[in-house]
Structures are given as C-alpha cells and as structure tokens.
C-alpha cells in the first residue's frame, strides 16, 4: 500500500523546507536508506533518506520549491497503484486555485467589459487624465494647486496642476491639446492613483456621462497610441527649430527641471510642442546622438557630447531570497524588536596576548588565531558570570548549565552560527580545529542542524576586515553577543609615557530583560583581564 512522505521538521525552528535537489524521479525504485532529496532548512541543507521501499509515484514539491512542514513531499508505493485519494490533500487546494483562477478570469472579463463601457461613454476627442503615480510608493496624490481652470484652453506641455505626493510636490503637464472640461479633484483635495484628475476635450463637449474613475489599462494604452503620431510629426519640426539658434529656449518648467536632473543640454533638444516648445516627453526620449553637431560650438562641447555618448544606464536586477536568507531576516527582526538591546564597549591592550600567541604558535603542529584566544577567554568569563549565559523565557529566566559559544560565520546566503559545545572545557588547539572545520563546512552547506543549535552566547568577529568597532544583533535565545574589532596600533599612556600599543575594541550587546548594565560591565572587566593577562586563564 502506498505511503505518504511529508516534509520533515529537520530543526527545532523549521517551519518550511525547500527541496534543493531530488535524487529520485517519479517511476524510480526506492530502497530503504536511499537518499530521496536534499532539503534546505532555515539552517542547512540536509540529505533526506527514505524509510520505506517501493516506487516513487508522486513528487509533491518541485526542485527549488518550498513547502510547509508536514505537507506532502512524496508518495511511495507499488508501481501502477492508484494514489488519487492520497493526493487529496493537494487536490482541493489545486481545485480551489482553479476556482479562484476562474473567478479572477471572470473578474478580469467584467473589468474589460467595464473598460469597454467606460470608453464607449467617452465622447470623441475627449481625453480622461488620471491621477499619475509620481513615485514608487505613491498610493494617492493631492492637488496642491490648479494652473488651469474649467473652460481654459490647454496645450500640450502646459502645466495643469501641482501634485503633492508622499515625497514631494511635482508639476504635472498636459499631454493633450483642448479645453479643460472638468476638474476631478478640487484644489487641496486628494484622490487615489488612477482616479479621474481632469478631462480635456473640444469646447462645449458634455462629459457628465463619463465614469467617475478611469481604469489603469486605458491610461497605459492612450499614450502608447499617441506616441507614433508624435514621432511622425517630430521630423519637420526638428528641421524648423534647428534652423534658428538662440540663447533663449522655449521649454516647459517641468521639462526644464527634468533636463537639469538628467544633465541634458536643452540647446541640443528638438521640441515637439507648439512652435518648437520642448515638453516633458522630449527630454525623456532625448538621445545625445540625435542632436545635430553645432559647427559654431567650441571643441569642449564636442568633448562633452562624446562623454555623454559613453554613458551606460544601469539596470535593476532581482535575486530571489534563499530559505536561509528569509529565516535570517525573520529571526533578526524578531530579536531586534522584541529584545531591548543596549551596548557596552571596552578597549583591550593586546600586547601580552600577541606575545602569548607567538609563543604558543612556536610549538610543533600548533597554529591558533586571536579569535581562538577570544573564544576561550569568553567561555571562561561566562563561567564566572552565569547571568550573561542565560535566556529570557517570558515569565522566567533560564540559567544555562553548559557554556556553548556560537561563532558567526559568513556564507553566500547570509550568516550561520555553528556552536562549540562546552567551550570552557576545550583548549586552544581544540577550539582552533573545531572553528576551522565548522567554518569550511558552513560555506559548503555541510553543517548538520544539531551543530547550529543550543548556543548560550555568540561571538561575531569583523576584525579581519579592518573594522575597528561595531554592534551586533543578539542571536536569540541568547541574551548577549560579543562584537570583536580589529587590533590597531595606537598611541597609549603607559607608566606616564606615551608609547605604541596594540588596541582591540570589544562591544557587548545585551538583552536588558536578562543582563543588567552592571552585570554586563563586570563580565567585560573579567574578559579584559583574561585577554590583557593571558596567564590568568590558568588560575
């Protein structure tokens, strides 16, 4: 009999999994212990083995797709077996989506009908102007000032109104010629994007039957229909304007503003408005290569034009978030906005630590880093200050018995924190070997979920990148995280004299619900003692 295999919960914080790769295809024979797929959790990519034998009859999640824990991942059974009832969990959703789709299609058809009816009600020669979207976050606009009243003649490029968005007040030009027949929004009034702003058409036209709102599809279609006509009329006007060259250029205020922002020389732009007036679309469509060379211009002008020709406009790109990146974003946001962070900073004189490291590394087969020394000193300091090695649990504080230090490791997808269990019981060489092993496997997504669980304190070191000081977000359920900066040579006062010292800055982020200021300060004092006098670690 066929069996349903659900998306497994591979870590205590996992809510959904992503299938990084399928190792079996539908129709393949599967034996107990065979790897079915690689599942990407919120912490790592893990092999998922089959616990039953049979034929892979159904794959519930495509490669690269994600699904919630306990949803159908696959179905294994006898070849040719009917599994339609087992897929029922997905079927209603699919049917629901089908019904939803058909409803949406029906809605779309209705919308199209409304568009047709609305456009049928618009008299010939009348243009409905909607509230424009002047910024990417704009949802409604406010008419700060009307520059044309009902009954006024409007020419292409004339200022109709000043529109106040969520970011600024911008001039709004007309793209049509005619008479302003209606103002859809009063001065100082607001209206949603794509609602009726104004109606322009022949004088005396009755527009009372025109709908109160114009669909976005009409707005996008109208300019597209008019663009070819504008281009076809552009050529004769270009010749007429280029025949006369004066210092004063006829240009609308909005077009002038856009030209200044884009760095366009308006003397080289051919206007398509009335009497060669430069309007908004002329600036937006302007290409430096379209400008005719001016023989009377100095050599500097041609050089500037040459530079403009070599400019390449950048393009926005998108990268879909990985499962790891989404979980990192979620966890850090939860930590930052739920735990009241505060920060303590201290400077450490690393002169003796540098000498101690040289002596240790002079031993055969021994190679430790400053990071290893900091991890060891931190673990021993935590044993003396158990409150820092605690967690907030709502109505109680949990004091952790073991000291498990998490070490932040940067990977292409973001950041992971492998954990050194019982760190205070490890020596330098054990810490060094464990950190190197976990860091290399983290970058190749080879860490197991249990290797990133159970931390009681975390350390983040950006000193290797030359960062002197920074603050980190607490890795919950920890109540503190240590940020380690670079070791920098600086003048210091020693025995009343100014000498060169090797200074390292540490920053401790604490959850004020668990760690009070004095407690955090005492912990840093102990850590400072251990690092400035490494022999004290042996006491």
Q: How many helix segments?
A: 10
Estimate percent helicity. 25-40%
Task: Kindly report the average pLDDT value.
Answer: 81
Q: What can be said about the biggest beta sheet?
A: 6 strands, mixed
Instruction: Based on Cα principal axes, name the global outline.
Output: extended
Count of DSSP strands: 26
Distance between the termini: 66 Å
- Which structural class matches the secondary elements? alpha+beta
Poorly predicted runs: 89-102, 104-120, 212-246, 291-299
Which strand order spans the largest sheet, edge to edge or round the barrel? 17-26-25-24-20-23
Describe the protein's topology.
Elements lengths: L2 E4 L9 E7 L6 E2 L4 E6 L4 E5 L4 E6 L6 E3 L3 E6 L13 H31 L5 E4 L9 E7 L6 E2 L4 E6 L4 E5 L4 E6 L6 E3 L3 E6 L14 H27 L10 H10 L17 H5 L14 H11 L13 H16 L2 E9 L1 H11 L8 H15 L5 E3 L4 E3 L5 E3 L1 E3 L2 E3 L2 E2 L7 H16 L13 E5 L18 E15 L2 E15 L5 H16 L7
Report what the structure shows:
With 539 residues, this protein is of the alpha+beta class. It has a six-stranded mixed β-sheet. Strand 4 and strand 5 form a beta hairpin. Helix 8 crosses helix 9 and helix 8 crosses helix 10. It is extended, with a radius of gyration of 35 Å. About 14% of the residues have low confidence.
Short description:
This protein has ten helices and 26 strands.
């Amino acid at each position: 009999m066929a069996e349903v295999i659900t998306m497994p919960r591979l870590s205590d914080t996992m809510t959904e999994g992503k299938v990084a790769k399928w190792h079996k295809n539908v129709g393949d024979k599967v034996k107990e212990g065979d790897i079915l797929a690689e599942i990407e959790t919120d912490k790592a990519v893990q092999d998922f083995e089959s616990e039953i034998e049979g034929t892979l009859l159904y794959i519930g999640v495509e490669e690269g797709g994600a699904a919630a824990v306990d949803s159908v991942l696959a179905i294994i059974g006898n070849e040719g077996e009917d599994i339609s009832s087992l897929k029922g969990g997905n079927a209603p959703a699919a049917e629901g989506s089908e019904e939803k789709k058909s409803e949406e299609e029906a809605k779309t058809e209705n919308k199209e009908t409304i568009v047709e009816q609305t456009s049928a009600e618009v008299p010939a020669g009348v243009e409905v102007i909607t509230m424009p979207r002047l910024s990417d976050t704009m949802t409604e606009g406010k008419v700060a000032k009307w520059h044309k009243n009902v009954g006024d003649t409007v020419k292409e490029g004339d200022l109709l109104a000043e529109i106040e968005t969520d970011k600024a007040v911008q001039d709004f030009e007309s793209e049509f010629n005619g008479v302003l027949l209606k103002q859809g929004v009063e001065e100082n009034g607001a209206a949603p994007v794509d609602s009726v702003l104004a109606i322009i058409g022949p004088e005396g036209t009755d527009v009372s039957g025109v709908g109160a709102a114009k669909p976005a599809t009409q707005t996008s279609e109208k300019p597209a229909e008019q663009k070819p006509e504008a281009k076809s009329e552009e050529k004769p006007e270009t010749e007429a304007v280029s025949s006369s060259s004066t210092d004063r250029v006829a240009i609308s205020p909005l077009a002038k503003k856009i030209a200044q922002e884009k760095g366009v020389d308006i003397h080289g732009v051919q206007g398509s408005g009335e009497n060669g007036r430069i309007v908004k679309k002329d600036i937006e469509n302007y290409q430096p290569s379209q400008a005719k060379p001016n023989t009377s211009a100095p050599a500097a002008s041609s050089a500037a034009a040459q530079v403009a020709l070599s400019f390449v406009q950048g393009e926005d790109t998108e990268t879909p978030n990985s499962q790891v990146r989404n979980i990192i974003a979620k966890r850090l946001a939860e930590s930052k906005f739920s735990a009241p962070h505060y920060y303590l900073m201290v400077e450490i004189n690393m002169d003796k630590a540098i000498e101690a490291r040289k002596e240790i590394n002079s031993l055969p087969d021994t190679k430790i880093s400053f990071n290893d020394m900091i991890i060891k000193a931190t673990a021993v300091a935590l044993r003396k200050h158990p409150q820092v090695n605690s967690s907030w649990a709502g109505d109680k504080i949990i004091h952790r018995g073991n000291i498990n230090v998490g070490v932040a490791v940067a990977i292409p997808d973001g950041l992971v924190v492998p954990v050194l269990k019982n760190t205070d019981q490890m020596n330098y060489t054990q810490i060094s070997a464990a950190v190197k092993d976990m860091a290399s496997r983290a970058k190749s997504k080879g860490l197991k979920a249990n290797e990133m669980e159970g931390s009681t304190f975390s350390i983040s070191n950006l000193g290797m990148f030359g960062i002197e000081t920074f603050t980190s977000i607490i890795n919950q359920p920890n109540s503190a995280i240590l940020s380690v900066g670079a070791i920098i040579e600086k003048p210091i006062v020693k025995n009343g004299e100014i000498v060169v010292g090797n200074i390292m800055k540490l920053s401790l982020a604490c959850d004020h619900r668990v760690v009070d200021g004095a407690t955090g300060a005492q912990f840093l004092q102990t850590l400072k003692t251990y690092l400035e006098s490494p022999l004290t670690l042996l006491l």
